[in-house]
Design a protein that fits this description.
Blueprint: H1 22-35, E1 43-49, E2 55-61, E3 64-66, E4 69-75, H2 79-86, E5 89-96, E6 101-111, H3 114-123, H4 126-134, H5 143-156, E7 168-182, E8 190-196, E9 202-206
Antiparallel strand pairs: 1-2, 1-5, 3-4, 4-7, 5-6, 6-7, 7-8, 8-9
Amino acid sequence: MKHVRDEYYAQPLNQQDLNADPLAQAEQWVQEAIDADLPLPNAMSLATVDANGQPSNRIVLLKGVEQGGFTFFTDYDSQKGQDIAANDRVAFTMFWQPFDRQIVVKGRAEKLSDEVSTDYFHSRPYDSQVSAAISPQSHAVSREWLEEEVEKLKKDCPQGPVPKPQRWGGYRIVPSEIQFWHGRPSRLHDRFRYQKQADGNWVIERLAP
């Protein structure tokens, strides 16, 4: 593994190329990845920390950049939900290899309203609603139990919509820091950090790669 090498060839990234609003800049990069039909263009690697200080990380899907933050949906009783309940400080990374780009976001996670979560839940495909409703995410179960619960719920709600469980909903990650990275030849990458100030403004600075 230590002999694996890849070179980066992204175009130069300068401060004048960046939007003064980092959320608008992040949304632009995500949309460009979507428009390019990249695999899972909205995949984000979300890091949380539990009450004992143990970090954990997993892939979730970004569902919006709106109202001052980044939104995703999950089970509130999952490992990530329990972590956030104990410590709302989170971070995530998005990486688009064909573009040699990544963003890194640090901030705090806050629950979305039940109304917003319900609207999104019922916009999902029927089978996705069923699996979310029956699955006690991050808890030990058997495959047989899962499949039995799916069949039971499909019999109870054959046409949908499936009632949204109270334990399921969305979060908005409100950022305090956002970094934008372009991979450049010889590892001399372009890297910019936005930090939110007390007055709500953002300060931008170039970081060493």
